[in-house]
Amino acid sequence: MDANESEMLGILFGDGSMSRRHGSFQIYITGHKFDDSEYLIGRVRPMFEELFQTSFKVLLVKDENTMILYAYSKRVALILHEWGMPFGRKKLSHLTPALALDEVSFIRGLFDTDGCVYRKYGPYIQIQFKFASLSLLAYARQTLAKLGLHPTSITSDDTKFRFFLSRQAEVDRFFRVVKPKNRKHLRRFQDAPRKQSYRPYAYRAGIPRRSESTKPYSNN
C-alpha cells in the first residue's frame, strides 16, 4: 500500500465505519462539523475521491455538531475490507492492517482522526491514543516504538484502552516525523504553554509560533 492508501486506512480505522445490508455497501467517516471541517473537506474528501474515483458526499447532522462524509460503493468497500477495514463494529474485530503499508502515513491518519494532544500540567503537553480496540492500540504503540519513541504502557477504563507520549522531546519528534495534517492538532500543539528553557519544534509556516525566538527542534 502506498502512502495515501495507508493514510486513508488510518483515517478509517480512526473515525470511519463500513456497513453492508441488503446488497447496499456504505462507507462513512465522522467528525466535528466545526473542529474537523477543514480537515475532512480539504484533505480527506479529495484524497478519498482521488484514490477510488468515487464521490464522497457531505452530511451535516441537524442539531448536532457532527459532520459525516459518506459513499455507497460495493467496489470500494470490498477494497477497504481487503486492506483490513471490517464491516460493522470495529470494537468487535481484530483491528490491524491486513497488508503491508506505509506505517508513518497510517499513524498520521489514525492520529488526525482519533488522537489527541493536550496540556498535561504546567508547561507540559502530551499525546494520547485511545481506542476501544486493544489490537489497534497495541499495533499503534508498536509502530511508534519502531520509530524510536517511548509510549507509556497501555491502560484501560470501562470502555477504552489508551497510552501516551509524554516525553517533551518525543512529542516534538512525533509532530516532526508523522506530520499530522488536522489543523486542530497543530494549533493545540503550537499554542500549548512550554517551559522557557525548552525550544519546541515549529511545525510549519502558517501555524503561529509562540514567540519569534522559538527555534525548530533538532536532534543535533
Mean pLDDT: 88
Mind telling me the CATH superfamily name of the largest domain?
A: Homing endonucleases
What integer value in Å does the Rg equal?
18 Å
Spatial strand arrangement across the major sheet: 1-2-4-3
Keywords:
about 220 residues; alpha+beta; Endonuclease I-creI; 8 strands; globular
How would you describe this protein?
This protein has a four-stranded antiparallel sheet. It has a four-stranded antiparallel sheet with strand order 5-6-8-7. Helices cover 38% and strands 22% of the residues. The relative contact order is 0.14. By secondary structure, the chain is α+β, with helices and mostly antiparallel strands. The protein has seven helices and eight strands. The chain folds into two domains: 3-92, Homing endonucleases (Endonuclease I-creI, Roll); 109-191, Endonuclease I-creI, CATH 3.10.28.10.
Helix and strand layout, with pairings?
Blueprint: H1 3-15, E1 16-21, E2 24-32, H2 37-52, E3 57-60, E4 66-72, H3 74-83, H4 103-114, E5 115-121, E6 124-131, H5 134-146, E7 155-156, E8 161-165, H6 168-178, H7 183-191
Antiparallel strand pairs: 1-2, 2-4, 3-4, 5-6, 6-8, 7-8
Offer a quick outline of the entry.
With 220 residues, the chain is α+β, with helices and mostly antiparallel strands. It has helices at 3-15, 37-52, 74-83, 103-114, 134-146, 168-178, 183-191, and strands at 16-21, 24-32, 57-60, 66-72, 115-121, 124-131, 155-156, 161-165.
